[in-house]
Amino acid sequence: MVSDAWIVTTDPDNPYESFEIFDRSIMNQFAIKNRSINSLTKEKEENKQWDGFKTPTYPLEKLAQLLEYNTWHKKCCDAISTDAMGTEWTIVKKNNSTTDDESQKQMLIDFIEGLTTDIHQIFKEITYDRRSIGCAALEIIRDPNDSEHKPIDLHPLTVTDLHRHNDNCRIKQQVGTQEAWFIEYGTNFNEKGEKFDVNCNTGIKVPFGSLPYEQTANEVIWFREYAPQSKTYGLANIVPALNAIYGDLGRAEYNTKFFENYGLPAFAITVTGDFQDYDVPEYFEDGTPNPEYDVKQTLRYKISKQIKEVIKNPHSAVTITVPSLGEDSNVDVNIQPLSVDQKDSSFVVYRSDNREEVAAANGVPLYRLGLAINGSLSGNVATETSNIYSDSVIQPLRTENANIINTLALNEFEVTDYIFSLDVYRKKDEQKEIQNGTTLFEHGALTLGEYINYFGKKYGATVPENSFLMNCRCIGNTLIDENGTPVSQQGGANPNFLGNLEKQLVDESEEIEDENNPDNAQTNQNNTSSIEDTSKKSNTHTITRTIQRAFNNRK
After folding, report:
1. What φ, ψ does residue 207 adopt, rounded to 5°?
2. pTM
């Protein structure tokens, strides 16, 4: 009895014309080998370009490439950098400042508005590099025409082109065969505390001020995600989740390359029994090809021609003819479908686990990535995770970004009374926030102007200038001015409206009384006239009392 088996497969680029049957001996070429992905593994870059320089724990270029390999890692970096860059900035006076001089404030405003790149975009690029690679660099460009060389611009550098020198001061930028040198901001001091410069072309240290300005290396503010084992280049947050990226790449490779490029078959054909096959060997015993061998005479080729018609016409009947050794020979042909269940096609749960691990490593809640996740009781947990994300990730990054400007403001512009501030990150229920603000306003905790500033600006509300109402508070549904006096709605912008109106009406009443009782009145009027005068006088006194009583009640 003879037994043999084949696997049916096709070329994915030409499934109908390029048809093949493989026997069991070469099935192992379809197995996924347990191999590492060299482009992602931890490695030291041992080459001459790092001689004399600090070597990063993980190659920076490889870390940057992870953004191309994993969708969720890129979305995490996109989300954090966008949230951390802020939407508005202000220059505010320090709490302990006693000066009224706003020249320092204007100096900072002019510097920020004069930047070539918008300040928010600078913060976004710096944050993106920090979260994806673990470090970032910001070049300070000074005014060559100013005797003091004050900063006039900021420019984010491509951190993968930078090499930190072993002296912890100089930084070399290598782009192809070209190189340039920089100094880390605030580190160009020797052991005696004397300041020095660096030649931007050669990297040689020289006495401070001895070079033409165009040959002096620019300064760079260096950022890093702190890690004990990498205090120079830091450590990207994604590093602990590299295995999740390995796994997801393997899953994708299994589902695409394994099926499409290697052509994993959908079924196997097994032929057993007393069948007759082509008996001319393909190779001689010494391994040389047999010129008499004709593959078209083999049973494998003949079956392949029959199966080919089935592949061209799905759901059609298949007839396989196998030559036997005789009339009493027993031949069994079995077509066995291969596994087509979920484990061979999608790895849905595995991918979900990898996605969650990548998001957790970056500190981004899944809802921020556009995924709705329910809690243990099927309740939405977006509010809780939003607060954690805001307090532990975004707000600290916004503070650090704002400190970039504040450091330059203090050291370069000698601004001591004002600070640069980014708006507070809020990803909460706006309706609830407005309700809370309204409660504070109704209980007098906020003035009308503060209420508009905090909650109205996003809707286009503005604070009118020179309006005393903006300093008023609401207590018990009554608007109270700074002196604690209720403000009349009819009074408009004049807090003494009611008092003035009362005085005006009383004066007019008294004038009427004087007209009705002149000093030179005739004493010999008849009784009828005297009674009329007395009646008019009584009426004017009544009007005066009514006016005063009405205004007292209104107040």
Report:
1. -55, 150
2. 0.63
